[in-house]
């Protein structure tokens, strides 16, 4: 059986949400204007994120990476990776943020992660240009579509927010933190609640028995 783990980055692997914090710091005017539009659903995530990201000067890119690098990872992450390796279960990260931000935080673990899916950023123009091979519908990074490309028999999703909702709905087993838990309850999709990756490991251990 082909079993795989698909994990969100922001607010899931990291304790804090790093992407919105980055937008507020590096594109303050665009963020002040566009974020409320996204929250009130007048603008899609896809349109809004593009607008904010493409307002950031390319000269800020290396500062963005250094701003993200020291962000704390939730406890138990290494232990979960160890456990998945023992069980030969591949671990894949799917993020709606910048690839460079994800790679900066996960640098010590890159050789243990099968793939990172995220936005690619081009810095050759005055302002950032974003590229995402899986842009569709209202999303810049369509997580469920990416998961589907792996053709796994059993998919295990780990996430924390509404941007993980499609991924969670399509997964065989879901580990959810709030506010994702709320959306799943509304849809009556079963999930396992978790606080840190030690809990994910413990619950996964008993699930696999
Ligand atoms: Mg998240």
TrEMBL record:
GO terms under cellular component: cytoplasm
Keywords, sorted A to Z: Hydrolase
SUPFAM superfamilies in the cross-refs: HAD-like (SSF56784)
Gene Ontology biological-process annotations: L-serine biosynthetic process
Keyword Hydrolase in annotation: yes
Single annotated GO MF: magnesium ion binding
Family label: Belongs to the HAD-like hydrolase superfamily. SerB family.
NCBIfam families: HAD-SF-IB
Protein name: HAD-superfamily hydrolase
